[in-house]
Write a structure and sequence with these properties.
With 190 residues, the chain is an alpha+beta fold. It has 2 domains: 25-82; 85-172, PH-domain like. It is built from 5 helices and 7 strands, in the order E-H-H-E-E-E-E-H-E-E-H-H. The strands form 2 sheets. Strands 1-2-3-4 form a 4-stranded antiparallel sheet. Strands 5-6-7 form a 3-stranded antiparallel sheet. Helix 1 (25-50) packs antiparallel against helix 2. Pfam families: bPH_2. This is PH domain-containing protein.
């Protein structure tokens, strides 16, 4: 019969010690933002150059607002990257992110279906990579960790794959011991 006893005291939460991202993760994030803002500023400058009516109307707000937005974005990246962290434990991986709304995602290795390492051109140049972990039944990555060194990504991926292989070996061994085929003379003569 199923029993569901009430707990008087909750189990104590383990303290997770997070390792920061790679040293070049901040530079990568800043360059990504600059690669967005610089072309935007160039396009707006060209529009102001060729359209005098728009320039008269928008030049002052653009000259004030865009640099302020750029500085705020770059400062936000500094705080965001410093608060991100990763922890590899015996049976799971934990990832912390967020500045205002902080989030800790813990993904058990036993749920991981497959992994991917993603590297864009800027990441390759800087020796960085992103690790994507997919769990069973998911179409998109359940955990996407960017800002890791490429070596860390390869090591984590190899650790996860070995954990999955060990789990499959244990499952195969247990199903083989559960199946007891009858000996040929026992099945007929009882």
């Amino acid at each position: 019969m199923f029993e569901n006893q009430q707990l008087d005291a909750l189990p104590q939460h383990q303290q997770i010690i997070f390792k920061p991202l790679a040293a070049k993760a901040l530079l990568h994030a800043q360059l990504n933002w600059l690669l967005f803002y610089i072309p935007l500023m160039v396009v707006l400058a060209v529009i102001c150059f060729f359209n005098q009516a728009f320039a008269a109307f928008a030049q002052t707000p653009l000259l004030i607002a865009l640099p302020i937005i750029l500085v705020i974005s770059l400062a936000y990246n500094v705080v965001s990257i410093r608060l991100k962290g990763i922890a590899i434990r015996e049976h799971d991986i934990a990832y912390r992110k967020g500045v205002i709304w902080q989030q800790v995602t813990i993904l058990p290795f036993s749920r991981v279906q497959h992994t991917e390492i993603h590297r864009g051109p800027l990441e390759r140049k800087m020796g960085l990579a992103s690790l994507r972990l997919y769990s069973a039944g998911g179409m998109s990555a359940d955990l996407n960790i960017s800002g890791l060194s490429h070596d860390d990504c390869k090591n984590i991926r190899q650790f996860v794959q070995k954990y999955i292989e060990r789990g499959q070996a244990v499952n195969n061994a247990s199903t083989q011991t559960d199946d007891h085929p009858l000996a040929p003379d026992e099945s007929l003569n009882g």
